[in-house]
Amino acid sequence: MLGVAEQPEEVLAITFTRKAAGEMRDRLLRSLESAQGPEPEAEHARTTWILARAVLENDARHDWRLLENPVRLTIQTIDSFCASLVRRMPWLSRFGAQASIAEDANELNREAAERVLALADNHDSYGQAACLLLSHLDNRMERLRDLLVGMLARRDQWLRHLYGHQPDEQRQILEGGLRCLVEGVLHRLHCMLTNEEQAALVRMGAFAGSNLRAQGIDNTISCLVDLTAFPAPSADEIAIWCGLADLLLTRGGTLRKRLDKNCGFLPGKKEPNAPMKEEMGLLLEDLTQREAVVALFDEVRSLPPVVYEAEQWQVLQALVTLLPRAVAELWLVFKERGQCDFVQVALSAGQALGDVDAPTDLLLHLDSRIRHILVDEFQDTSWGQYLLLKKLTAGWQCGDGRSLFLVGDPMQSIYRFREAEVGLYLQARQQGIDQLRLEPLYLTTNFPLSGRDRCLGESGVSAPVPRS
User: Fold this and answer.
1) How many domains does the chain have?
2) For residue 294, which of 255, 261, 246 has the smallest C-alpha distance?
3) First to last CA, the chain
4) Largest Cα–Cα distance of the chain, in whole Å?
5) Cα 94 to Cα 199: distance, rounded to the nearest angstrom
6) What is the crossing angle of helices 155-162 and 141-153, to 10°?
7) pLDDT exceeds cutoff 60 at 323
8) What three-state secondary structure class fits 396?
9) Average pLDDT, whole number, for the chain?
10) Do both 271 and 355 map to the same domain?
11) Nearest-CA neighbor of 383 among 332, 320, 428?
12) 7, 371, 417, 431: most buried by Cβ count inside 10 Å?
């Protein structure tokens, strides 16, 4: 990217630790220094040398003098980048004096949650909501406190859904989220089953359901009695999916080893019992090699209903009432302590940039300056940081000369305690980021760097680069 940029500041490289940022900077500078010497013989070293040589030539054309002025390289941690945005627009980001960032914000969230619990003695909407939630949790204050602490730690995921919506709209949003969750699991399972396996499950389900009905047994498997086609991955078909799961699995979540009348397979060697029992046995044997399929069938049985009952919705409304107050209390804690958390830094940075439809001068400036972005360890991205990246690339189009590289491995996320969301990496790989469709590049070789696996995209296309 530095080989084609007009200014080094056009390239923004982001990672998640100061150590990794330092390693990236040192590696780049060492490569530039090596490119001043003869071409190496080793193939991998030669590739790096050629790329570094192109950077030096571009450096000479534009008189950058990077080796003398490495400060022009924009290689930062995501937190330092967000903090720099907050410092530049403090009146929009709602931070006045510079606050320190707490590595572990659990204590801050806990104090805010305890202040909310104290509202239970009030005779207002907050007190009523707190009392209702405590009643729901058997008056165990520590459970409500821990619930609020967990929600505050993930407030970047739900804050935007609480404001500007009436209760009925909030219910639709939440139930829509449940439906997406359920149908996401069903869709994955549906795609993993072959046509032959689906057809076999239809035959086995209808057969077992018929036998159970004949015995006067009414359970999830007997609901398959009229099954003629494999169910669609729809929440409306959840009863059938649960019946198929119970047909295959024991209560403990393992594949059945015994087929008897309790699961719809009668004893005896006469038709159709013996042939169907044999076919079911073969299907179960085939699935012993399909651990992911078995795990998803077991997960199906614990999926939530996609419509809230009246009592459930009353409890949720109470929680929705308390959450904004909890955020307000957290802001007071931040102010009193002179500290904030990583979530707030990312949220405040996003506020400093404005919205896509109403960008601030800072976002317009960054859009004109930054043309290439590399995010290393993308699997450690939180939701707030992901939204920030969406704003930075909102005006980008494929083929406009700008590039986005997302590098990571979903199996190596180390920042769950900082609300990293591996699902964002998978979402970007499958769906892109808004208008940007990304090209996956799978690396089959890891390159160790100071004890850590790391790879850098060396292509002009927009791409997430998963390591495998």
Assistant:
1) 3
2) 255
3) 24
4) 89
5) 59
6) 90
7) yes
8) coil
9) 86
10) no
11) 428
12) 371
Cβ contacts of 363 within 8 Å, gap of 6 or more: 353, 354, 391, 392
CATH number at residue 439: 3.40.50.300
The total number of residues shown for the chain amounts to 468
Q: Does 136 share its domain with 207? A: no
What is the full DSSP assignment across 182-206?
Answer: HHHHHHHHHHHS-HHHHHHHHHHHH
Report the alpha-carbon distance of residue 188 to residue 396 in Å, rounded: 31
Instruction: Please check whether residues 328 and 353 belong to one and the same domain.
Output: no
The two tokens of residue 306 are 């996609």
Q: What is the mean pLDDT of residues 414-426?
A: 58
Same domain as 378, residue 285: no
- Distance, CA of 439 to CA of 461 (rounded, Å): 7
Q: 403 and 422: one domain?
A: yes
292 and 187 both lie in a single domain: yes
Domain boundary among 244, 271, 300: 300
Q: What is the 3 state secondary structure string of 90-150?
A: HHHHCCCCCCEECCCCHHHHHHHHHHHHHHHHCCCHHHHHHHHHHHHCCCCHHHHHHHHHH
Structure token digits, residue 256: 């059945």
101 in Cβ contact with 38 (< 8 Å): no
Which residue reads 């993993």 in tokens? 192
Q: How far apart are CA 20 and CA 449, in angstroms?
A: 9
Rounded mean pLDDT, 355-374: 88
Asked whether residue 162 is assigned to any structural domain, the reply reads no
Range of the domain at 140: 106-153+310-339
106-117 vs 141-153: helix crossing angle, rounded to 10 = 130
Q: Which residue in 260, 339, 355, 372 sits closest to 2, CA to CA?
A: 372
- pLDDT, tens digit, 9 for 90 and up, residues 199-215: 999 999 999 999 999 99
Rounded average pLDDT over 146-170: 87
Q: Residue 413, SS3? A: coil
Which pair of tokens denotes residue 410?
Answer: 């979903």
